[in-house]
Design brief:
Distance between the termini: 18 Å
CATH class of the largest domain: Mainly Alpha
Number of strands: 8
CATH topology of the largest domain: Heme Oxygenase, Chain A
Number of domains: 2
Largest sheet: 8 strands, mixed
Order of helices and strands: HEEEHHEEHEHEEHHHHHHHHHHHHHHH
Structural class: alpha+beta
CATH architecture of the largest domain: Up-down Bundle
Radius of gyration: 24 Å
Helix content: 55-70%
Bound molecules: fe (ii) ion
Strand content: 5-15%
Amino acid sequence: MEAINHAENYLRNKAKSTEQPYQIDISNDVISISCDNQKMFGHIRIEKILHSAFQKSLGLSEKQSRHCAIIHTPAFSSDSDAQKLLPMLCYFALRQARIWHCENIIFSTKDNLNTVRTLSALLRLEPVVHLPQISAQRLNYAIHHAYEACDQTQRDVIQTYFVHEILDTFKSWVTQLFHDSWFSAVKTRSLSKEQYISTLFNLHAFVKYTTRLAARCVAICETRDLRNHYIHHLKGEINHEVIIESDLKALRADVDYLLQSYVPHTATGEFIVLQESIVSFKQDAVLMLACPFVAEGMTANITNAFVEDLHATIKSWGVKSPESVSRFLTSHMKTDGGDDGHWTRVIMMMDKYIKTENQHQQFLHILGLAMSGYAHGLNANIDDLELWRSQQTVVTSVKDEALV
Ligand SMILES: [Fe+2]
Ligand SMILES: [Fe+2]
């Protein structure tokens, strides 16, 4: 995933060039924050409840535990001001739980009474009637209050971490996507010509709107820098649907039908209506960044091995020149990927324009919808068209997968 590496390098270099008032160390489940040359520090641990010792001791079922994390007792240096780190420590702990897809946060009421009172007040923890050993809260509500309790300097530091959380969320999604039906069908070289044509039809259904959506973002942007981003994006997307049409013509697919009468698959429609809603109803050019971030993030991160598999698959259909029917996907690896590709530019804009926790929560919400819609749309080209794939190939492919 080369494009992700470019993005992470960009963010690392940016962090190095700016002096931070706090040193923050996030190593999986332990968050440590220090300042004043380590004179003042604090740390806190966050843990998934599922399969933890705590799940057993509470007698929670898998279903009850699945979207829960437990926040452990924070510890501080003896400096009396160190307690001021608590809201920021809690923020970063809850952020980690959010990356793990947790929806609820738990704290043990058996802890020291003062800590129970302080954390309950900070995170608005509430008793759980049937579980007197804990207090709990919905994560988004608790993290909102942790953020609100931070001072402006702390919030400015937190702002620089929004884009990292977005990138981590994307990474776990795209890793799963590369194992789902569509990418598995390419990897195991079992994708049928009909499934591929359906994929191009459904990609065309939203790619044909990209310039028009970008143009609408230009129209609604009050901020020059973001407006210029969309102008640049628009220019880089002109006639990209024509590349899909050319791939389809080379496959002798019915492009006239595509242009005049094709109605996209409902699963693809999820991504299309999301874009229409953000641009026309919400009219929010910052939230709209989530859609190119997902779509270009996929093409930017596909590998040369993917192209090899795709070309070998296309050859197996009797197509002599696979390059002539896969120009859309292969060209987008370059235009969307690389250190100056469309995708990195989207990341720079997200980093700059997502400024508050509330805006960040809204962005994560749209991002979740975009990821889910995009994956549904892509995988439906395989799952709903299994008729067109020989069971022999599928069985072989499942066996091959097991060996990987
Ligand atoms: Fe494009
Ligand atoms: Fe693009």
